Amino acid sequence: MAAVLTALAVACAIGAWRLTSARWPWRAPRSAILLWQSLGVTWGLATVGAMLAYALEPYGEGVVYGLHAFADSAISFGMGLGLIQPYDLPRVAALVAGLTLLAVLVAILLGAGAQTLRARRRHRALLSLIARDDPGVPGVRVVDHPGAAAYCLPGLRSEVVVSAGTLSLLHPDELRAVLAHETAHVRERHDLVLLPFAALRWALPWLRVVRDAHSSVALLVEMAADDRARRYCSPRRLATALLRFGTAGAVPAPNGALGAAGEQVMARVNRLIKPGAELPRRFRYSLVTFSVLLSASAPLLWIYPG
């Protein structure tokens, strides 16, 4: 079992590395985002599971049931009823490493989530003091700042924010396109998609594959929001708005927010102006099915008894 989980973890790492340089995900960003999520979840569970499976192999009951058997053995050892297993040093080291890695991954994710929530809470408090409503853009908060800025603060009380500089910079159609883009971020909760990748990048900034994975998913999130905005406006209007943001020197979105400028603006502009053919529906359905099966593989191997 340990060998199978190790092979699964290596396959996920290789798949993520190859996916960072692929361009076909631009033709189906939502399906590609799902694949990225399944690769990340499976890699984490398979890596931890490989260590635990090796450590708990003497019990012959797999990972989940092996942990239960280990707990029973530890309790018996504490009561003086026998030896605790696994009792050889390599297996004890693997058990400690696996549990530690699991705790670290969970702690990183929870820590990043807590930090993001704090940043959003502070920014909402600031907006309550400096932002205003504008009848020309109902439902949008306006900040009196000359720079170009447009972003959303996702959450239970989601807000879309634009600057006064944005209102003077963009034509009405372009502004409508930008607001549709930000609304897509809010509705599809792209912040939750990015959170685990941002957390890994914060924890492992020296790993190129982690940095590239975060950049790839961030770009796909922006492209998915662009696709949603295209339903309500002309793609060229959105592309023009992005170019105006770029030439005006757009203000970066605050921590915890998703901005309109986003990642790799020129790649998005080219995609909007010269959209390639979408991936065939059959391929997209196959990709979704594969992602679901991949996500289920590691948990199934965890509970496999032996």
Automatic annotation (TrEMBL):
Pfam families reported in the protein's UniProt record: Peptidase_M48
Alphabetical keyword list: Hydrolase, Membrane, Metal-binding, Metalloprotease, Protease, Transmembrane, Transmembrane helix, Zinc
Domain Peptidase M48, chain residue ranges per copy: 119-195
This protein's record includes keyword Nuclease: no
UniProt-listed InterPro entries: Beta-lactam_resp_regulator, Peptidase_M48
Domain of life assignment: Bacteria
Listed GO MF terms: metal ion binding; metalloendopeptidase activity
Requisite cofactors: Zn(2+)
Keyword Ion transport: no
Transmembrane spans: 34-56, 92-114, 283-304
Co-factor note (free text): Binds 1 zinc ion per subunit.
GO BP term, example: proteolysis
Family: Belongs to the peptidase M48 family.
Protein name (Swiss-Prot/TrEMBL): Zn-dependent protease with chaperone function
